[in-house]
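Typical record was shown:
=====
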Amino acid sequence: MKLTEIDLHKELKKYFGFNKFKGLQEGVIKSIISGNNTFVIMPTGGGKSLCYQLPALVLEGTAIVVSPLIALMKNQVDAIRSLSSDPGIAHVLNSSLTKTEVTQVKKDITSGLTKLLYVAPESLTKEEYVSFLQGVPISFVAIDEAHCISEWGHDFRPEYRNLRSIIKQLGDVAIIGLTATATPKVQEDILKNLDMVDANTFKASFNRPNLFYEIRTKTKNVESDIIRFIRGYKGKSGVIYCLSRKKVEEIAQVLQVNGISAVPYHAGLDAKTRARHQDMFLMEDVDVVVATIAFGMGIDKPDVRFVIHHDIPKSLESYYQETGRAGRDGGEGHCLAYYSYKDIEKLEKFMSGKPVAEQEIGFALLQEVVAYAETSMSRRKFLLHYFGEEFDDETGEGADMDDNVRNPKKKSEAQDQVATLLKVVKDTNQLYKSKEIIYTLIGKVNAVIKAHKTDAQKMFGKGAAFEEKYWMALIRQVLVDGFLSKDIESYGVLKLTKKGEDFINNPHSFMMSEDHDFTESEEDAIVTAAKSAATTDEVLMGMLRDLRKKVSKKLGVPPFVVFQDPSLEDMALKYPITIDELSNVHGVGEGKAKKYGKDFVELIARYVEDNDIMRPDDLVVKSTGANSALKLYIIQNIDRKLSLNDIAKAKGLDMDALLKEMEQIVYSGTKLNIKYWVDDILDEDQQEEIHDYYMESETDSIKNALKEFDGDYDTEELRLMRIKFISEVAN
């Protein structure tokens, strides 16, 4: 069928129910139907799939779609089948099929029924499939996720490299390459590798104006922060990305324990579970999916309201693609990432076993992520510049939609420093990466600088009045403003642009904003600030101490048996007013809360009401009891009267660590009967002597006990007796 004979709008309405095309779709579809090689760069959510699905449905023959993920193919095939009464209209051809299924697929293609055939790149290399496809009419070949071809792409797959030679064997067919994230370097790579430099290229804007970008420091309280954030999106959908499967499981558990409906998704789960969890998310049976990057390629859920990166991704392409899963319907989308330089160091370590060239690329991509996280300029402008797109951060659509623009850092005049920086790039013959340029400026020597004898030149140390961090921030801003460009071919060498040359000749005002400082000291400062912002209520603390004394007198036990000091301090910080909330207080388990808690929560509830106190919203951030399996193991094996040495050995603990676990168990209200073990170490009189000491003492401090007994008993004996005492007297 010729393009002139096809009413595209009619076909669009017939198959997809839409009245008009979105963005560049119509131009792309016309290009494909006319038999041209076509290259489409369209951000996630821009309607890429329709660009090849509609032409496949209206053209003669079968379109082959190369796709990297089985889950992604399954989704797309289901979607196409829902448009037709015959399931044979779309098929998958990959390693998951049985022989009978493969026969059926071939039959449907030969009869002309199948319009779209989804294949994995590995399947396309199989000789039997290639020779079968040579004998049937092919309308065109679409290569989805085409960035997988480039080693500069964030998801490089070597098998994608062979596609061109295989397609050539299928005859003279048009190729369409599609990607959602491609820097100029990756775009060039794709066109070269697919041998389609003549392709009609369609590039949509990478700007997603409805997305709000935010980076927060990753502190030790990151889980509490995530829970608080999600509670602001009650009943709405979101995705949390983590780099490891273990972390995915942990975060999913923490969310579940805290009443947030969440499921994990990673390659370690069996295919059935993965499919079930994905469906639960799509059907809105759960609100949140916690996932590794295996999740989301082709997940077309329009109303994802937030995407959280618990761990910073390995590249800005990954970050862009993953954040792009938020707000596809044009509604709100909050993209929050937690950043700590420690995570970057961890990622660098993972790369250390790889080939040198791969490491170089990996490091270069990681440095871009660091630059994005630490910059204080408009994040949108920075991101779009990375993808080769200019953005006006004052008038552009979505200009105020990021944390940096909303909370600007102070700016200072840097005209002279920019001139100095650009001259150093020029005078070092444009051979250096950022690091060497900065070393030259501050007067620091390394092997590269020695080799080029830069340290002997007049410019060396010319910028020593400013710190390394200052120059790094300036380089980032000068790059985005187009005075310098980064030569990606040589892993980040800085080159002077025409605009930069002009600046050297005619310098003018340049206002520079300071970068964010994500060093450890800032993290400590944040933790300290959080602590000081939430200080213990001393008045309540006094009242709780008095109550504890009263309760302990009534029961005839020392005060520490009821609740330890750290538990009272936590109560005076969190104001628990139910037994359930009390069991989340430090050192108080369910058993202890039920046994002693009634009077305490009643006192706190009265105090809160009388003094009109706002309780902290993070009160019920519960821990998963990730340690609960270990605790259960200890309790069960002590019940079986197993040797403590054997219990410790089986779990890779030393005696000190085992005693710590046992102390936590008994202090939170669970009994541990260790009489069998203590009887072997201490006779009856010794046990009685230590028991009486704890009964009379105001404190359970081991230090005080050691002093009291003056060397008669060692620390371990006193700790074991304290565990036995608390277990018998308190629980």
User: Anything to note?
Assistant: The chain has five domains: 3-203, 211-406, 411-514, 534-610, 628-729. The two ends are 83 Å apart (CA to CA). The chain has a mean pLDDT of 85. The first strand starts at residue 38 and ends at 41.
